[in-house]
Amino acid sequence: MPFVSFVVKKSLPDRHGAALDAGLGRSDVNGVRHQLAYAISPAGPGDAGDLARVHVQAWRETYPGLLPKAYLDGLSIPRHARLWRRRLMSTHEVTLAAEGVDGLVGYCSGGESRVPGEGLAEITTLYVLREAQDAGLGRRLLTDTARVLAARGAVSLIIWVLRDNTPARGFYEHLGGKLDAARVETVGGRIIPSVGYRWERLGGWVGT
Ligand SMILES: CC(C)(COP(=O)(O)OP(=O)(O)OC[C@H]1O[C@@H](n2cnc3c(N)ncnc32)[C@H](O)[C@@H]1OP(=O)(O)O)[C@@H](O)C(=O)NCCC(=O)NCCS
């Protein structure tokens, strides 16, 4: 399986980097190495509780000021665990999860697009907890999920993101997504503008 069992490592401060590059085995250095390493693998129904925990934490980290406070305060891990369990039973979507030494820290799901388009796939959700950001994990989760979707026959890809989620938009643009569409969504009773980024030649992007 091309997307199973690889590890990304966050850049380390120089004092650790030299030791790690030299392959030293001191326990303090190894401790740093393990804290900063993540494995990515397909998620199943047994991961529903952990995915719900990450979901709620990630939304509360990402969306203050963008989504209603009452909605974020009311997010429920047990409710989202039930939703995740149902979602993970479906064969229409694939979900990859990123795990660190203390548990899951991110995930990405994708499937056939909800808007019409032959061969168009959609990344339906992508979240990395703040503590694990800037380590290359978002890129790996996205490209590995895209690779699975390409293997299932998708030729292009779309991702919807809140219009005012500037950091995520910067990330998608950095990875070559082209601004393609706009729409509104209703979240927590508020109408929220969102925009779609598209990759036209998915196979070329993910190298399939
Ligand atoms: C957006 C998100 C998935 C990115 O994941 P990440 O692990 O932090 O990003 P990575 O470390 O994989 O970054 C990959 C590349 O994108 C670049 N990048 C990241 N954020 C960027 C930004 N705002 N603007 C420009 N480039 C950016 C990185 O510098 C890196 O570049 P390189 O690989 O060429 O060196 C993550 O920050 C996140 O989950 N944010 C909160 C939730 C969210 O907004 N999700 C999207 C909902 S649609």
Radius of gyration: 18 Å
Structural class: alpha+beta
Outline: globular
Supply the number of helical segments: 8
Tell me what the CATH architecture is. 3-Layer(aba) Sandwich
The total beta strand count reads 8
| Distance from first to last alpha carbon | 14 Å
For the biggest β-sheet, the strand order reads 1-2-3-4-5-6-8-7
User: What's the domain count?
Assistant: 1
CATH class: Alpha Beta
Strand content: 25-35%
Structural commentary:
This protein is an alpha+beta fold. The chain has a single domain, classed as 3-Layer(aba) Sandwich (Aminopeptidase). It has helices at 14-21, 27-35, 48-62, 69-73, 77-89, 137-151, 166-174, 202-206; strands at residues 7-9, 37-42, 93-100, 103-112, 120-128, 156-162, 178-187, 190-199. It has an 8-stranded mixed β-sheet, sandwiched between helices. It is globular and about 40 Å long. Mean pLDDT is 86; it is low at 1-7 and 9-35. The chain binds coenzyme A (COA). Coenzyme A binds at residues 58, 62, 126-128, 133-139, 161, 165, 167-168, 170-171, 174.
List keywords for this structure.
208 residues, alpha+beta, Aminopeptidase, 8 helices, 38% helix, binds coenzyme A
SSE map:
Blueprint: E1 7-9, H1 14-21, H2 27-35, E2 37-42, H3 48-62, H4 69-73, H5 77-89, E3 93-100, E4 103-112, E5 120-128, H6 137-151, E6 156-162, H7 166-174, E7 178-187, E8 190-199, H8 202-206
Parallel strand pairs: 5-6
Antiparallel strand pairs: 1-2, 2-3, 3-4, 4-5, 6-8, 7-8
Bound molecules: coenzyme A.
